[in-house]
Amino acid sequence: MCDHVFSPEEWERTHQTKAVPDEPFECGVEPLDGKDFCRYHIDTSIRKEHDLSDEDVFTELLQESQDVFGATFQSVNLTPDSISDIETDSTELTNTVIDFIELKNTTIDFDFRAVQCVFKRYRESKTTVQGRREFVGVHFRNHLHYAPNRTYGETTFNRSRFSTPFHLEGRYDDYFRLKACYLNRELKASHTEFTERFQIENGAIRGNLHFTGVDAKQDFIIRDVDLPRKVVLSECDLQEFNCDPGGGLPSVVDLRAGTTAHSGNLMVPEGGGVFYDLRYCTIGDVQLDLIRGTLGEYLFMCTKFSNFDFIQIEDQLEKNGFDIHTFDYPEDSLDESPIYETEDRLVNGPYSSSTQLQHQAETYTRAKNGAKALGADSIASGFFVKQKKAEHAKFEQQLRDTEDGSKVKSLRRKLWKNKLLRYSCKYGESPWYPLGWSVFVLPVSGSLYSLLGISTPDGVQKILPCFSECGPATDVGVIWLKGLYLSAVTFTSLGSAIYSPGSSLARFVAGTEALAGAFLIALFVFTLGRQVSR
Q1: Are strands 25-26 and 5-6 parallel, antiparallel or unpaired?
Q2: Is residue 529 domain-shared with residue 438, that is, in the same domain?
């Protein structure tokens, strides 16, 4: 028999992966002629001396039913012809080292399981996989490109370690899962379709996650994983995106332009550390975690809302003054933060202040329309006020930036109009504003009438002469009450047959007050009607 004895201690020391046998294991395969070792435990050069290739021996190993541990291969290139020689429903590869393995343009119709193996370079492309794939405790060292054309069976990476970037492509018609894996480099999935569930759970990822052009028909799950600094999803269509990470560095989950999350949950770990950048993407019926987190961990800017449930965050919105464009990402991480790498996400280069304010206004416009579609009119009202405030700030910034005379006049007109609506009725959203102004105008106008003169059946009466001529202080109060009465009937346009303005200036005040009264009463009725209709 072969003289090779598999040593678990030596294997774990050399390859940093666990050994399947707990004790030394003697190989039971016949040795090659004139050699002390079998075809599995010799070098590639010796195999060639016996007219054996790595591909031939590897396919034989997959076909063998007996246990073989510690096999080594230099280069394995599996072709359709070599794969067709494997006549088995399932095969398992255990404690095997392969320097380079490539599968290309082949159909694999058996279940494959690799346990505690070392793949230094693994490349797969344009394959059709009919059976299940499972990699348990496998160490991918130098290169991993996993791009089958179509996979019909379940694909699982379990407790595996990735010391190389993981490039993923293809179509997967069954469950795809990475469980308790350690990724020391980035995971990049490009133009990949998942018909069933895609899931990353447990484990840790030290390199960044990049998903580009991913189409997930069902659940797309990231759960209980220590995330890297950046998770980017660009041009992705996610039917249900559930992100419940285990921790962060802090980390930013960045849903970029072209990405749509139709439903799901965006969770924050205990203690925080994970933030969601939702600029330029489309958000559907997605739930936010406002129990462990706050709105400051979600950034909405130029976000499109499609059936997003604003009612779920109504309390936080009211608490924050309906502010959804701020981001509480730690300031000490700003220089390295992906949320400030905007050059690849903007058409016209970096933000200017007016551009950013314009984007804020557009964001609140979309949020307002989304809330109205849900029938949440009170929330839509809050977003409308934020929209108008952002527009006002934009006009002010543009006025500071421009030197064009015609633009200056136009901007000033817009600012005055905006200010008038803001301070008179809070852009038509609050009846308390015109009511407050009315309460202010009535006593002020009454006092002016008392000072300027009130025409009564007893003649013109004023407060100031009364101090020196009238005598009793009660006369001053009576005249002021007459002025207040005159102010009330003038403000409401009722008029009085007893009292009228007693001087030219008093008549000017009366005319002004009548106009102000008509305007404020109309505003009060309009804004109150909007509130009642809601």
Answers
A1: antiparallel
A2: yes
Kindly give the residue spans of alpha helices, DSSP state H, lying in 134-212. none
What is the amino acid identity at position 86? I
195: left (phi over 0), alpha (psi -120 to 50) or beta: alpha
Is pLDDT at 407 greater than 50 in this prediction? yes
Does 386 lie in the same domain as 488?
Answer: no
Q: Looking at the whole model, is its pTM more than 0.90? A: no
Among 80-84, 156-160, 178-182, 268-272, the minimum mean pLDDT is found in 80-84
Phi and psi at residue 204, to the nearest 5°: -150, 150
Whether the CB-CB separation of 233 and 211 falls below 8 Å is answered with yes
Number of domains in the chain: 3
Residue 169 CA from chain centroid, whole number: 23
How far is Cα 301 from Cα 297, in angstroms, rounded to an integer?
13
Q: What is the CATH number of the domain that holds 502?
A: 1.10.287
Q: What is the DSSP string of 464-527?
A: HHIIIII--HHHHHHHHHHHHHHHHHHHTT---SS-EE-SHHHHHHHHHHHHHHHHHHHHHHHH
Kindly report the average pLDDT of the chain as a whole number: 87
Average pLDDT for 221-241: 92
- Give me 121's structure tokens: 């370079």
Band of residue 473 on the pLDDT scale cut at 50, 70, 90: very low
- DSSP classification of residue 468: I
Report the distance separating Cα 68 and Cα 461, nearest Å.
Answer: 116
CB burial class (10 A; 0-12, 13-18, 19+) of residue 534? exposed
- Which pLDDT value is given to residue 347? 32
pLDDT surpasses 90 at 62 = no
pLDDT for res 262: 96
* d(C-alpha 56, C-alpha 8), whole Å: 27
**Cβ atoms of residues 30 and 4 within 8 Å:** no
Q: Does the residue 175 lie in any domain?
A: no
Range of the domain at 469: 432-533
